[in-house]
Amino acid sequence: MKNKRLLGIIVALALVVGGSLVYSSLTKQETKTETANKTAKVGVLQFVSHPSLDLIYQGIQDGLAEEGYKGDQVKIDFMNSEGDQSKVATMSKQLVANGNDVVVGIATPAAQGLASATKDLPVIMAAITDPIGANLVQNLEKPGGNITGVSDHNPAEQQVELIKTLTPDVKTVGALYSSSEDNSKSQVEEFKAYAEKAGLKVETFAVPSTNEIASTVNVMTGKVDAIWVPIDNTIASAFSTVVSSNQTAKKPIYPSATAMVEAGGLASVVVDQHDLGVATGKMIAKVLKGEKPADTPVNVFSTGKSVINKKVAQELGITIPESVLKEAGQVIE
After folding, report:
1. Cβ distance 145 to 197 under 8 Å?
2. Within a domain: 326
3. I need a labelling partner for 19 at 20 to 30 A (CA). Which of 35, 213, 270, 327 fits?
């Protein structure tokens, strides 16, 4: 009798354990299915409207699509502060409050705004030139917090080499940048170090806003042989003013974005903005799939291709060597 009772207890326990395992397996499968079918919500804050930043946003969408986040699989909550710092703060808080799974900052001020708005929600940087200098991460390999992303490190050394090659008579270069953008300051310091090592003198001209660009350019063209512009959202948003203010002096302008070369710059060495966006989109996908920003190294793009504006070169009486044209990533006729 005792043996039968013991056998019954064992059978009952086996049934309970087996049922639990089956239930657990089914629950996990249901969870996986729910996760796979869930629409990912991605909040995106773009600092200002500009062709370069627009390309990054398009690249983000393409990168997400390549990882399977397209159509009903993703909902993008997009906002643009149009260069207004007060809107950056307001929109950052709104994107965090909207229930997004991850938020993305296109350009340094946007990423900084989102970083201030949340310490818990994953924040992905898109095209941040100096993440450490902007106090977004402490280490590129091990970010350690809720922030990671993609950095477009300005290829300053390549730009100096291009200036020396195309305009060998240039002795003094004026660096035009915004005093309100942290990453611009670090770029200028790096560019100045490479330029001075190459025998060039660098004069710096900082502007607090777009309102001072015209007057600053008028002053600097009387003191320098060429103008260099870092990756700077303020200057980029009003680059037409830089070009128009230089019409009389006709000094060669070396910006740091393809769109600015197309808009009147002579040449530059640039990192492809669409590629940056695609890499950002793929990093967003990794985080959506479970990777932690703290353990995800910042993806740094540090080399670029030259972009040459032959029309501007002709207007300035500059002959572009055939070797430079052959190696260029883009030649604007």
Report:
1. no
2. yes
3. 35
Both 246 and 291 in one domain: the answer is no
Same domain, 284 and 259: no
Q: Is residue 23 part of a domain?
A: no
Q: Return the closest-CA partner of residue 310 out of 270, 273, 261.
A: 261
For residue range 120-179, list pLDDT tens digits in order: 999 999 989 889 989 999 999 999 899 999 998 889 999 999 999 999 999 999 999 999
Residues 31 and 254: their CA atoms lie apart, in Å, by 53
Residue 20 located in a structural domain: no
Would you say 114 and 96 are in contact if contact means Cβ atoms under 8 Å apart?
A: yes
pLDDT tens by residue, 82-96: 989 999 999 999 999
Domain assignment of residue 109, given as a range? 39-153+273-301
Contact 81, 59 (CB under 8 A): no
Q: Is the overall model pTM greater than 0.90, yes or no?
A: no
Quick check: helix, strand or coil at residue 17? helix
Interatomic CA distance for residues 206 and 180, integer angstroms? 9
The answer to whether 287 and 41 have CB atoms below 8 angstroms apart is no
Measured in degrees and rounded to the nearest 5, phi and psi for residue 305 equal -115, 150
- The answer on 226 and 215 residing in a single domain is yes
Contact residues for 74 (Cβ-Cβ < 8 A; gap 6+): 39, 40, 41, 42, 64
User: How does strand 226-228 pair with strand 172-178?
Assistant: parallel
| Same domain, yes or no: 132 and 258 | no
